[in-house]
């Protein structure tokens, strides 16, 4: 039986109606985070970016806690227990404002809280997770080092046993929230391999120095951690952490958030360019009316919708327990590249105005340089995909 009803014209802001596939609870999360982000974050983010910091990280943590996005995908201990798709939508709406703000939430929930939730003792979980979920305590995640980025197995941070205590020495680099954190999850090499430790940042010998002069991810706090004879009790060890696979599994959670976040950044740049080109007149007509401009919008709307579809499909796989870490690599590799293309094209459509903080595109464009690097560089994810399809590792 034929249906003669005429389909509705595509919505330029969701061309393939990807969000039409969301469930009611997922739409509620999307709308709540989008509303918060646009009212509480968007009016200030350009100033924060220009200043190169977050002026009130504790207030922001508490606001995120009240919103319910900190560790929202974890079960129990004051966490929300939401679906992977709902968490992804929160990441998308936050990064549509700025990558640094999504990173704040991601590092707290997908890295520090996830490490404690997956590998910690009951005492560690009960001590930290409810406070972190509420935004009353800030966490950071210490894996990357000055000489150990893509190859974390070469880390130099060491933990030695002295009686029942552990003593840590080493340096961690590019640590989001490091200088404002109450607790750091630090990974170190021991006689038994790589293990994780819960380190209260007030412990003697622990220090964190803010990294200045960043040209990307400026609306965030990035630090270097130094551990000099940091003595910890036996209970500081994450008892279930075993080997490098433990921190890498946390990174996979963070990468999943990036898949959605990059889709949000791409959407924001596309929408900014569409609004600008529709209202900017040159040679007697809107910039959007020229053939060259329309070809650029065609390319952008394809990238934006491909990224949205990839995010949602990966989220569904994750909620079904079917998302392999190579699937996440696929998502990060594809969506970040798509977002970079969209941001670059959108910046060009803005002309000279595109380099100012009056518009979001240049800010997203430079932020995406960092997004392409952290939680696995583009090259590392390309090699992961290459290994997945050929069965041959090119890493060593």
TrEMBL record:
Record keyword Transit peptide present: yes
Limits of the Acyl-CoA dehydrogenase/oxidase N-terminal domain: 24-136
Cofactor: FAD
Domain Acyl-CoA dehydrogenase/oxidase C-terminal: from-to ranges: 242-388
Catalytic function, reaction form: glutaryl-CoA + oxidized [electron-transfer flavoprotein] + 2 H(+) = (2E)-butenoyl-CoA + reduced [electron-transfer flavoprotein] + CO2
Keywords: FAD, Flavoprotein, Oxidoreductase, Transit peptide
InterPro entries hit by this protein: Acyl-CoA_DH_CS (IPR006089), Acyl-CoA_Oxase/DH_mid-dom (IPR006091), Acyl-CoA_Oxase/DH_mid-dom_sf (IPR046373), AcylCo_DH-like_C (IPR036250), AcylCo_DH/oxidase_C (IPR009075), AcylCoA_DH/ox_N (IPR013786), AcylCoA_DH/ox_N_sf (IPR037069), AcylCoA_DH/oxidase_NM_dom_sf (IPR009100)
Biased composition (Basic and acidic residues): 1-16
Highest taxon in the source lineage: Bacteria
Known pathway: Amino-acid metabolism; lysine degradation; Amino-acid metabolism; tryptophan metabolism
Residue segments, region Disordered: 1-22
GO BP terms, alphabetized: fatty acid beta-oxidation using acyl-CoA dehydrogenase; fatty-acyl-CoA biosynthetic process
Class of the enzyme per the UniProt entry, highest EC level: oxidoreductase
Enzyme Commission number: 1.3.8.6
UniProt keyword Hydrolase present: no
Pfam assignment, any one: Acyl-CoA_dh_M
GO molecular function: fatty-acyl-CoA binding; flavin adenine dinucleotide binding; glutaryl-CoA dehydrogenase activity
Acyl-CoA oxidase/dehydrogenase middle domain mapped to chain residues: 140-230
Homology family: Belongs to the acyl-CoA dehydrogenase family.
Protein's name in the database: glutaryl-CoA dehydrogenase (ETF)
Natural source organism: Nocardiopsis kunsanensis
């Amino acid at each position: 039986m034929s249906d003669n009803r005429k389909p509705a014209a595509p919505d330029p802001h969701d061309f393939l109606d990807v969000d039409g596939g969301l469930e009611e609870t997922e739409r509620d999360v999307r709308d709540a985070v989008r509303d918060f982000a646009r009212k509480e974050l968007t009016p200030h983010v350009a100033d924060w970016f220009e200043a190169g910091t977050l002026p009130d990280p504790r207030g922001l943590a508490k606001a995120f806690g009240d919103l319910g996005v900190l560790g929202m995908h974890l079960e129990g201990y004051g966490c929300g227990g939401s679906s992977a798709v709902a968490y992804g939508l929160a990441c998308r709406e936050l990064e549509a404002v700025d990558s640094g703000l999504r990173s704040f939430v991601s590092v707290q929930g997908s890295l520090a809280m996830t490490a404690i939730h997956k590998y910690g003792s009951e005492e560690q979980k009960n001590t930290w997770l409810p406070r972190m979920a509420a935004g009353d305590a800030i966490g950071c995640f210490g894996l990357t080092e000055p000489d150990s980025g893509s190859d974390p197995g070469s880390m130099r941070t060491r933990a030695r046993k002295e009686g029942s205590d552990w003593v840590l020495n080493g340096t961690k680099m590019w640590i989001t929230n490091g200088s404002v954190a109450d607790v750091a999850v630090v990974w170190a090499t021991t006689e038994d391999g790589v293990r994780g430790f819960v380190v209260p940042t007030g412990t003697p010998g622990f220090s964190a120095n803010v990294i200045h002069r960043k040209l990307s991810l400026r609306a965030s706090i990035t630090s270097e951690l130094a551990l000099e004879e940091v003595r910890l009790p036996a209970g500081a060890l994450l008892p279930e952490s075993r080997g490098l696979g433990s921190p890498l599994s946390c990174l996979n959670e963070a990468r999943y958030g990036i898949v959605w976040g990059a889709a949000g950044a791409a959407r924001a740049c596309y929408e900014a360019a569409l609004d600008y080109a529709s209202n900017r007149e040159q040679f007697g007509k809107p910039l959007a009316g020229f053939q060259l401009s329309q070809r650029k919008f065609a390319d952008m709307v394809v990238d934006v919708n491909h990224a949205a579809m990839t995010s949602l499909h990966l989220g569904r796989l994750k909620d079904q327990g079917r998302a392999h870490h190579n699937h996440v690599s696929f998502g990060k590799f594809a969506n970040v590249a798509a977002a970079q293309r969209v941001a670059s094209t959108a910046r060009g459509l803005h002309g000279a105005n595109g380099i100012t903080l009056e518009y979001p595109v240049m800010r997203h464009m430079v932020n995406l340089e960092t997004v392409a690097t952290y939680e696995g560089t583009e090259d590392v994810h390309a090699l992961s995909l290459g290994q997945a399809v050929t069965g041959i590792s090119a890493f060593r």
